[in-house]
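Need tokens for this chain, all 90 residues.
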Amino acid sequence: MTFNDRVEINPKIMLGKPVIRGTRITVELIIRKLSEGAGEQDILDAYPHLTGDDIRAALAYAADSLAHEEIILSKVGALNVETGNAVPGR
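Here are the structure tokens for all 90 residues:
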């Protein structure tokens, strides 16, 4: 199973946010619930039409999205992460 089997993006559903196929439950909602401390069983109890595979697919989708994220650095207003001070020449 890959997340592609379970996660879909359709502009007509939830404004195109990634959702679990056949539902209006967004990947974002699942990740947010997990980050707030909900366990898999808590989510399954709250959303009975989800499965454990759906939750794992949401996690896989999020991980893949982050793995392919591109970061573009800007020279305008660059700050030193450690000090918070402006970086000279940037």
